[in-house]
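Researcher: Let's continue the batch. This sequence belongs to DUF427 domain-containing protein, and it's 165 residues. Same format as the previous ones, please.
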Amino acid sequence: MPRPRPEPAGPGQESVWDYPRPPHAEPDHRRAVLRHGGAVVADTTDLVRVLETSHPPTFYLPRTAFGEFLVPVERTTFCEWKGVARYVDVVVPGAEPLREVGWWYPEPDRRYPSLLDRVAVYAAAFDEITLDGVRVDPQPGGFYGGWVTPEVVGPFKGGPGSWGW
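Model: Same format as before. Here are the structure tokens for DUF427 domain-containing protein:
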């Protein structure tokens, strides 16, 4: 499928088509709050934002921000840029566990040292994720973990027909 025509970015917006490849990681100090099963699972302003062409940003939070809610699982995958990822469940007492809802890089590629001991999550599984009080939408398709917020415009990889972008 040919590359889609990017949406025009308005004032204060970024087009994901201007993001680099390979991806770029940068600090972000907005407040991320993740909620599930009536609990605040994580609340932090210590974020790393990963930007990659055609994807909304993926946010990595310190593993420590999740307290006891993170449970490592056996699943692993490989990213050509960042290395081998291990997955985690989020388990809140009294709530349905979120299975393989997040991932982290125990030994990230040397190009991404800022991802060490940080976890990214799929937004769709949570009751709510906010970034500076604005509700986050999940990246379309369920395969990628980007967070869609009003400051990013697409189209975004992940939806129907976007696999070959």
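Researcher: Any comment?
Model: DSSP finds no helices and 15 strands in the chain.
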